Amino acid sequence: MARTMEPLARKIFKGVLVAELLGVFGAYFLFQKMNSSQDFRQTMSKTFPFILEVYYKSTEKSGMYGIREKDQEKWLDSKN
Fold it and tell me: TM spans, by residue (predicted)?
């Protein structure tokens, strides 16, 4: 019985590993896109504000301050 379960366990492990790698690369791509485009951050603020909040908090923890304030200032100016 253990011999027959081994290929299944290997397939499950590979599937989980691929899912993890896709998640890591997806998060990296999303961070890079938000880090380089203020317009994309504005789109994220309308559709997924909780993800944008995570971005702001992570950049502030890494020592990069003022991004949130610059975004809010630009978005307020564009509304007026």
Answer: 12-31
